[in-house]
## 1
Amino acid sequence: MRVFRTAAALLAVTLLLAGCSTAAEGPETEPPTTGPTPTATAEETASPTPAPDPADPATWTISAEGIGPVHIGGDFDGTLADLPTSWTSDGAACSWAAFWNAPDASFSMHFVRGSENQSDPISEVSASTMADAVSGPVGPVTAEGLGVGAARDEILAGYPDAEEGTGAVDGEWIRIPSDGEAQIFFQFLTGADLAWAVTVTTRDEPSYEVCG
């Protein structure tokens, strides 16, 4: 009788320990996965650069190659034909120049070829506003975001190799040297702080008059 009781007691203790062990360990579960929250790449978050609008020169870029689709060295007649009809040229009085005016009159543009020969390439393109009324940025800009209405200190800070000079007839300029045939000029009234024009030209300085 004592043997049966001892065996029963041992069986009870074994079952109790097994139950405690199972309860303590609990059911097997997969460990939670952790890791960094996915983040968007720079390409995904960056706003796409809008494409230049042929009808809106304010969306064009100024460089030593020209302004927007008007390229230094390009064919004058072909370039004019590819632009919207808002660009005009007076074939009788000034056949070597083409002009455009913003609908709100905030700025204007022109480009010219040589005046002696109709086959001469484009040698100058410019964006400008009224010289005595410039008040802030308008029109196309360079890759550094500078254009008509830019301040002298902004330009000199953006282009450490820029050169300052005085116009042969009037005004002042800041020239941005380039390795190409043409250079960018920011033009100022004498003593003024804001550029009233930005011109890309193959000449020593921007033309004082286009059709004079």
## 2
Amino acid sequence: MQLPQPKHDINPLSKTEMLVRFQDCDPYGHLNNGRYIDYFLDGRDNQVTYDYGWRLVDFINEEKKGWVVQKQELGYFRPAIYGEEIVIRTATVFFDDSNLMIECRMLNKDETQLKSLLWMKLVFINLANGRRTQHTENIKEFFTKVRLNEFDATKITFDERAKELIAFYKSRRNK
């Protein structure tokens, strides 16, 4: 499957606006911890479909290859509250021959408060045998065009990145 060429002006840090739903909350009205990942995945799926112009399910069905989660790091910094409008921003932040890393941020509506951060590390596999396989040159070229280049994911820890983002979004409140 030939991946589409991303728009030249694509923002690598894609955005989806969402509403925290009642059924996703705990008795205190906070988004249930387990649902954060669902919100991140829904946001990412929307962004790949609408911003990148391709559907992951079509790619998987045609190529018989796909990405599986190898590791996740998730931090909760501020609660997302029932009825609150939130923003999910995701980006490809690292890739190599068979690995991919996505950064996902959950923010308040005006994007001045980091509520949660997820690093999702994925491995590209052949679905026929369940084994790691290599990204094609086409896939690597695509990731190069959509990768967020604001930091080097191989030279920073999750906790260091979280501190950076918390400070960045806090500084936006003071303007």
## 3
Amino acid sequence: MTGVSDGGTPALRGDEIGIPGVIEWTMEMLDAADLRPAPLPGVEMTFTLSRLPSPEVSRAMYAAVGARVCWTDRFGWSYADWQAWVERSELSTWIAMAEGTIAGFFEIEAQPGGDTEIHLVGLTHAFVGRGYGGHLVEQCTRRAWQRGKLWALDAGPATRVWLRTSSLDHPNAMANYRRRGFTVAAQTVVDKPVPDPRLAPWPLPHDPRAVAGDRAADRAGDRVASGDRTSRRPKEELIT
């Protein structure tokens, strides 16, 4: 999805900064019974399956939700790329609404063998820090376990729900996933090329890579100092 191959870190484009020592985690849940509910937010959230996938809406949501936490891997996608991605029968896109507006969204993919990946899940900026995040992740995960019944009707049941996150993510993301019942299945350290998030459809007030890069470098430095030998292999898209 990102153009990063297993052969090594790609050359940087003119608008990219290479952030060293980004820690990436694969997290998983192996039984629906392991899902732990989150406290309800102060107002009702509703969740709607996009039965008519829209490249325009998905691209806008990707930029609105992800640019502040370095969701940048799809910035170079064309309309045809987005269309091919969202119109697959194995992918479901869900829109979360609250207080009369879009509060967030998530993407779930039915993969072979019962694996079900949460590609993206996150809130729009106005809802961050207001108690909505845990409920969003809970409802996303519940729907992931409902594959074959609620969506991807021909895909069969889910046997494993998994996701990827990284040290570029929101500081509370890992704790949120753990509280919902996810556990770490794998961990790697990579040097990640990140394009300027201010290239989103509208300018952002700052470049979040500066703080994120410092945090990732500090964590990687701590791991090197402790003699860690974690493998380094580039990955694909990460979620928030």
## 4
Amino acid sequence: MSIVISFSVIEISAVRLLSTICTISICGVIVAALNPSLSDWLLLAAPCATASALLLLKRWWQGAEVDRNWIVIDGSNVLHWNGGIPKLETVKEVASTLAKAGLTPGVVFDANAGYKISGRYLHDKALGSLLGLPKDRVMVVPKGMPADPMILQVARDYDAPIASNDRFRDWVNDYPDVLTSKDPVRGGYKDGKLWLSL
């Protein structure tokens, strides 16, 4: 059962809605300009056309977000890669190394990640700030919910590989496509240096 709304579907729906509003508004401007008896409609159609066109332009400008080469980092797993001790610096180094390799990292943490590294709950924005990542690329799952299905769903939605040493055996039946489509990026530390199976 899918527990995550596909962000890509929401994005596509928003762009379609904006395109529809823009098209209708431009048609309204043309009709009102050609028919003087409908000139009052210019007061509504012109601002709608302008605003929707500007929003579409903004989406187009940021369109590279959709085409990025995403990778999902299993934050709670990667926290322990360096000697088994949870360190946020490990996740930061992995994210930085993956970014240097041309990937765009997004990180998903269990709700208890903040307690492991700071003794208190940390939300998406706080962890994003500590990692040097935008808050929209960091997700902390709600308390009582495992992060694994979120990680697998995000990987499915963005057709992305996963950076984790976890085999996700409990989720093989629910996400066989994700677990067989792309090789996971495994990693760890050897002689104090990070290695990744890129």
